[in-house]
Specification:
Lipoxygenase-1, 7% helix, mainly beta, 12 strands, 183 residues, globular
């Protein structure tokens, strides 16, 4: 059974899976009710010094080495389950990458005050089991959310629930704020 995390909580992916994890799917979901809003999931790859190495989004669906693949843009958020997914082959992620930060942005500049039931979850691709989930309960008057991050620590990958509202219509607009959140 998957662990439901609270803002700020961290887990080891290997401990939750009962062994090594090599490929995961990060699913993001949300509801907007009757309001039409185009939200975009993205991820940023950051080095130890917090510099941005690469950004994966609807504009660039795959990392340079193919270790991260965005499955495509959902323009409406309609339906149940994941609205957008980003697949990560942890074994192939460049060794320079310390943090993989997952975000959601309103490309048209609408605020997240109209977004309901936002979540991020990590699924182990080996058995398709959900390892953890973070349900965002706060509403933010911002155009972007930093939802979570995968990060290397002590030779393994860990997951941290972040849930921070920041302004930015693309992940590249949010880099400075993300760097500050990385400590």
């Amino acid at each position: 059974m998957a662990i439901t995390l609270q803002k700020g909580q961290k887990i080891s992916l290997a401990k939750e899976a009962g062994g090594a994890v090599s490929k995961v799917t990060m699913g993001l979901g949300w509801d907007t009710g009757r309001t039409q809003i185009d939200l975009d999931a993205s991820c940023g790859l950051f080095a130890e010094d917090k510099s941005l190495i690469e950004a994966i989004s609807f504009r660039q669906l795959k990392s340079a080495n193919g270790s991260i693949v965005h499955t495509g843009d959902n323009l409406t958020g309609a339906g149940d389950g994941d609205d957008e997914q980003i697949k990560v082959d942890l074994d192939k992620v460049d060794g320079k990458v310390k943090h993989i930060v997952f975000t959601v942005n309103s490309f048209r500049g609408q605020k997240f005050t109209v977004v309901e039931n936002a979540f991020v979850r990590i699924v182990n691709q080996a058995d398709n089991k959900e390892l953890c989930r973070f349900n965002l309960s706060e509403k933010f008057p911002t155009t972007g959310l930093v939802m979570a991050r995968l990060y290397r620590h002590g030779g393994e990958w860990k997951f941290a629930a972040m849930g921070e509202g920041v302004d930015g219509q693309t992940i590249k607009d949010m880099v400075g704020k993300i760097q500050a959140l990385l400590g």
